[in-house]
Design goal:
The chain crosses the membrane at residues 33-55, 94-118, 130-151, 163-184, 205-230, 267-284. Keywords: Cell membrane, Membrane, Transmembrane, Transmembrane helix, Transport. One of its GO terms (cellular component) is plasma membrane. Pfam families: BPD_transp_1. The protein is mostly helical and 300 residues long. The chain has two domains: 33-79, no CATH class; 90-295, Orthogonal Bundle (MetI-like fold). Helices cover 75% and strands 0% of the residues. It has 16 helices and no strands. Mean pLDDT is 81; it is low at 1-16.
Amino acid sequence: MTAQTLSHPAATSQAGAPSGTARRRRGVRPARVVAFAILVVLALAWLIPVLWAVLTSFKTEADAAAFPISIWPTQGFTLEAFRTTLAEGMVPRWAWNSLLTSTAVTVITVVISSLAGYAMSRFDFAGRRMLLAVTVASIMIPGQILIVPLFQQMLTFNLVDTYWGIILPQVIAAPMVFILKKFFDQIPRELEEAALMDGASRLRILWQIVVPLSRPILGAVSIFVFIGAWNNFLWPFIVVNKAELMTLPVGLQTVISAYGIQYAQNMAQAVLAALPLIVVFLFFQRQIIKGISTTGIAGA
């Protein structure tokens, strides 16, 4: 009896819980192998152009334009394309402009989106449903349609060729408002009701309770807004004409236009423009991946 009692859990474990070998066997199912193979192909399809751009940026112009195309240059790798790009343009100034405007867009967007999302989540004011519907509907409007009215507004307020002209039209982000609203909906209202009974104001509740609980989503929103503002080419290209106010993508494009197609320099400029975002990703990759997996923010 005692032997049966002692041996029963082991038998149950063998019968009910799969062993490590069984889990490993079950983990190599054909569907998993096919999915892994597809992911590898997709990763290579994305990675090969990036590697090709990096290799070309370290070639001479003669090697970059040589035919047939070769991976290893006959004249060896060189930093000449980077030196030429940095010498001919205003890359440090354009990089500073991109950093300044992207940071400002990120801070203002997060503040506005947080306040709007919190209000839609917690306050039952007149027109709330309509406002939420308009917010969701505005997500489907392509940004290019708003270029002309936005530019007219910047002309009216005399903000063309200014930093504010670059920043202000980018700070209204309906997808971020909706994402933050949905996240705030999941925070227990009991926490705020207890704070209200203790005499805390709504603003204090937002700052001391809601914001600390929302750090992951706020971090993800901040990162994606910053990346979007840094990569934005169209609006800064339209609203700014002065070289000293151009952002990095716009400024590098003027170098290309002024000196014609130089393959090595073009790739060097692309690498320089992407380098800050690569650094951002390396530092915040955990938050970026978590933000994509938990909110679907990449498709917003």
